[in-house]
Amino acid sequence: MNELVRLLKHPIDKYNGLIGSDKQHLLICNVSHKAPLLVTDPRFDMLCARIVKYYSLKRFVEETGKSLDEWGSAHDGSMFHYSSGMQAMMLALGICDKVGIFGYGKSALAKHHYHTNQKAELCLHDYEAEYAFIKI
């Protein structure tokens, strides 16, 4: 984990406003949206994506005994993406000397996002893979 933190420790250019996001977000959070959009650096996006996919693939093979080729159909491979919570945690690891994480997970009665009524988790996220990374 210390090596990961060392690799992430680089100044974030606050004037560029780059941290990390995906193209789908740009379609929803555009100029007409009430909340400002923070466009993220593609390298940061790739780092988050690779870490979560590694842990997802590892968990899939260990728990199911199936080959890696079958992972995509089980996890909606083309849409698979890390959660915003994972991105926030990775950003904190890159900026802060010490990071404490709490509230990662939720009640079945809680909304998925504060701004929607959706309660079900999205199948395009592998929260268990993210939890496995957090535990290291």
From TrEMBL:
<keyword id="KW-0735">Signal-anchor</keyword>
<keyword id="KW-0328">Glycosyltransferase</keyword>
<keyword id="KW-0808">Transferase</keyword>
<dbReference type="GO" id="GO:0000139">
    <property type="term" value="C:Golgi membrane"/>
</dbReference>
<dbReference type="Pfam" id="PF00777">
    <property type="entry name" value="Glyco_transf_29"/>
</dbReference>
<keyword id="KW-0472">Membrane</keyword>
<keyword id="KW-0812">Transmembrane</keyword>
<keyword id="KW-0325">Glycoprotein</keyword>
<keyword id="KW-0333">Golgi apparatus</keyword>
<protein>
    <submittedName>
        <fullName>Uncharacterized protein</fullName>
    </submittedName>
</protein>
<dbReference type="GO" id="GO:0008373">
    <property type="term" value="F:sialyltransferase activity"/>
</dbReference>
<keyword id="KW-1133">Transmembrane helix</keyword>
<dbReference type="InterPro" id="IPR001675">
    <property type="entry name" value="Glyco_trans_29"/>
</dbReference>
<comment type="similarity">
    <text>Belongs to the glycosyltransferase 29 family.</text>
</comment>
<dbReference type="InterPro" id="IPR038578">
    <property type="entry name" value="GT29-like_sf"/>
</dbReference>
